[in-house]
Amino acid sequence: MSTFDSATLAPVKNVVIAGGGTAGWMAAIALVKLLGKSLNITLVESKDIGIIGVGEATIPPIRTFHKLLNIDEKAFMKATQATFKLGIEFEGWREENHSYIHSFGVTGRECWAGEFHHFWLRAQKLGFGGEFGDYCPELQAAKANKFFTNESMPLNFAYHFDAVAYGRFLRTLATEAGVHHIVGNITNVSKCSQTGNLTSLQVDESQEVNGDFFIDCTGFKGLLIEQALHTGYDNWSHYLPCDSAVAMQTETVAAPVPYTKSSAHKAGWRWQIPLQHRVGNGLVYCSKYMSDDEAKSTLVQQVEGEPVNDARFIKFTPGKRRLGWNKNCVALGLASGFIEPLESTSIHLIMTGIVRLMRLFPFDGVTQSAIDEYNTKYDSEMAAILDFIVMHYKVTNREDSPFWQHCKNMPIPPSLTHKLNLFKDTGRVFLDDGDIFRVDSWTQVMLGQGLTPNQYHKVADEMSEAELERFMMGLKQQVDIQVSRLPSHQAFLDKYLAVNSRA
Ligand code: FAD
User: pTM for the whole thing?
Assistant: First the structure.
């Protein structure tokens, strides 16, 4: 039943965004460009409280977001020192000396009855077929450090970029498009004593910023959604043991590869994100099994180039806000929760939150039905990502440290147990409604982590053994030929970014 009386609904005209990190500026640019004629948008950010500055790896739907906002790719890439990303290499996740790539794109060919991996599984049983990744152009291009894109060769890709520069880039576009920008510290959040809705932000001592609707992008602290509205947080640390990270940027020592590197260590994992001008590095770890000092010294020993800044520690609690939308406030970015940096889903979730909010935008007043719709979708999206991330820790042969022994024995969500059993027993992949990862992703990671199905779909038996062998060889040859013609990632970047952009 609706808790809002439609007769008393207050129209929404003035939107206030609190926070100017990636989430704040993504929300600002999207709202002003797409709904700017109906809304006044103000963004308040502190110059004293910095942004988190570490979210630098993305997944392909960010390109759709940029297209929607008419953001010029070359201008964006130049401004943010971006490189192309075709996937993630997982080193030491299945066992210490093993690595695989989870790439974007399609592996093999899609078939209406059963996915490509069933044909590959049958080929494996018959003793041919090679590696699963042999059939994915994005994966092979990543391995060969190659890249190319145009309309006739649509590799599926995302970007690595400098997060601070991305915020600056979006800020310029958003303020030019009409976002009112206030720099100052939010010192108080006022609420209506009757409805509990937010009414204004006190900025420093001098300014009160009133709003009809608020977007909380203040990072982990959730100044509006938590500190003012006491929404509550679902803590998922029983599923996700890592709670700390130490980050450091280093000089570039080699041409950037078109993939993120994720290397497992005895108490978590390490990331390497190559940009044009530097590399972003970080060690993610579980504080129960590794001290901050050990984490920092491990990172310092393992980075390849000279550090360009001091190591910075970040503490987090994996989980999500109980409600992504509460009263007249939506939380985006870290204010709405944080699962884990593995698989680079956080910036993507900012985007899906923005799109969902825009579709449900309460121009004529906030209704409970819109809030419920937003939160149901938000919950299912977060739950599906949780399953996908937990799988990396759970499906492994590693037991070589107390951390990995903990992962082996930790509980997992029942929905993930079902997905793993289904794949193991039948080779079938189950996707939740809100799942942002496709069958290709689930299959690559489950196989990569060492989970091999006992069965395959019998559609693969429709071919004779000889036909199957020809089919597989043909597909592999196509991939090999396509990849052999690609330039190196660096050569492509140099050429592509030398051509003038719109902005
Ligand atoms: P923040 O960057 O923390 O910004 C908060 C803003 O709020 C700032 O502008 C600050 O000034 C403002 N603010 C706070 N308090 C006040 C106040 N009182 N008054 C005024 N302003 C205030 N995501 C990915 O997609 N890919 C990745 O590879 C990735 N890696 C990550 C690695 C780690 C270790 C972590 C912790 C996160 C990672 N993320 C990643 C997540 C990503 O960093 C965030 O989703 C993204 O940066 C958005 O952050 P944010 O804007 O929500 O918060």
Answer: 0.96
